[in-house]
Amino acid sequence: MTVLGLSVLTAVAMSASAPWWLVMALAVPTLLFAPGLGWARWLLRLQARGEREPGRAPVTGLQLGIDAAWIAMGWAWVAVALVRELGVRAAGLDEQQAAWALLALTAGFGAVGSLLGRHGHAAPSPRRELLGGAAVLLAVLAVAGWRQVDLSRPLDGYWWLAGADDEGHAPLPVVAGEGWDRVQPLGWPEAGALRIDLPAGPTTGTLRATQAAEGRLLLAIRGPLGSEVEVQGQRATVTADAWEVGEEAPLRRYLAAGTAGLAVPVDLAAGEELAVRAQGQALYLLPGTDALWSAHAVGELRYTHYWQLLNQVENLDWARESLRWRRLTVNQPPGWTPLLATNVLFGDGDLPGANILFLWILALVGGSAVRLGSILGRGAPVVAWLLPAGLVGVHGLLMIEPASTVFPDSLYTAAILAVAAALAGRRPGWFAALGVAAGLLRYAGFGFVPLLALAAWLGGRERPTRGLGALALGLGGCALAAAALSATGQVDDLLFVLYFETFPEHWHGDFSLASLLPRVPAFYWLWLRYTGGGILLALAGLPGPPSLARRGARFLLLGAFAYSLVLCTVDHHPTHYFLPLVALTGPALIATSAALPWRWLSWALVLLTLAGLWTTLAIAQVF
User: Fold this and answer.
1) How close are the terminal C-alpha atoms of the chain, in Å?
2) pLDDT at 54
3) pLDDT in tens, 325-373
4) Of 67, 166, 211, 446, which cross-links 40 as Cys (Cβ 3.0–4.6 Å)?
5) DSSP readout, 485-542?
6) DSSP 8-state code for residue 227
């Protein structure tokens, strides 16, 4: 049985003290896929015994795998809660013991499902799904190889210092002087950035001006908490929390190690030296603004905003806390944190381990897009099945470049695609369950899912009455649970948090048209760029006589544009806002290419989009 085999492999790797990345690579499919496979087959058997929904799409091998992943993740949410309440809190288990307990619960759940579903069989996967799925897997591998440096960078490789990126600071003629063992140039030679590796314990060395130097000198110290650099009476220390100017309290920044920066005004004559005392792993000399971006460009030390550092470390901290005492998160919807907790138990607990989970979810996003396109776009040209793979590459770029891979938006995107596929395939139970999952991954999902149902109806599909009824029951259950938790004091200020995360967080109370309207063109321009022009080309499938593919294109485009009307007025447009819109563009364009009566035009639209996606990836920039 798959789940037992993978569980044994994971257990052997843990017992043999295998590298954490190998354990994590085995643990992710063991926990988040294999235990759901038997249960997905069992549900398929129940469906076969009951009255089949008219027009329901057959469950192929790809759909069965997607169902299995969602069932397994649902169980992971339950199992993490059991380990916390009955293991860590009640029996005092440590993290290693908690990992064994979670693995045992997973194996048991999966074994029961395997017995119940042993006679359930999916329909053969059509060639279009095999082609699209293979292309998606290759795209995920390509993203992993392309951005290997970023995916393997720990949290302490990101830093921020107020004013460090201010323009106009030309490189100062300052180099490493005496007292340093190993000095390495970083990036562009003309920028003058240097990395100085430090021995254990405090070290004293000098920085020397090769010519007269007057201006601002940046120094950064990287190492365990408590690492510090001191020069001219100024000191920077690596701390888990940092107090930023204008903030009411210290902000989370790092786990066990980090980076702290220092801006030193200097006025040195040629040959004059500065004494520097440092303790840590490495000291970085950044003699100008270009040097900061030089270190950033080579991936050694990525410069980001302090709010992004807070977002990164909060997700990692919440995952760890969810295994000890935290029952749910409210500032972030509670569905993501228990899954990220697998990185704490089986990975490194840092960004590289979380990125293994991210790559797995990236494959789920691509597979879900292929499945949705397969339901709606039968008859699309063969090249159309490369579109989900191309958009997976863009998805990876949009999350890796700003270091947002620990955010829940990738899994939220997979949930939105699965909701749309459940609507298109007439699976009301799955529509309701996945609709609740989408809302528990991003609060916006509670609004987007009904919008998709309305778009399906307006796009010419059957009214999804049963699905909406089941969804209403699910949402009602979530509302009752939230009310009970709030009334019993299990969560603090829940209603205020929901209000703040929805309105002040995104609009800051300014709803004047003069503020809202200028943001709209920039938003749609970004959506167009991120899809290689595909969202505009997909509109070609809207006019014409009704057909399955044309109704599908209308359904997806109506839903996506309705959702975008809310996002386009937000006062900031981070990349993760675009993920569902980018992902839905692929199946919409597949449906459009299947709906067009001229084959040459179908090929042209797809090839133009693929060329646009290639250009987007080649530029490798996000805005």
Assistant:
1) 46
2) 64
3) 998 888 888 999 999 999 999 999 999 999 999 999 999 999 999 999 9
4) 67
5) HHHTTSSSSHHHHHHHHHTHHHHTT---HHHHTTHHHHHHHHHHHHTTTHHHHGGGGS
6) -
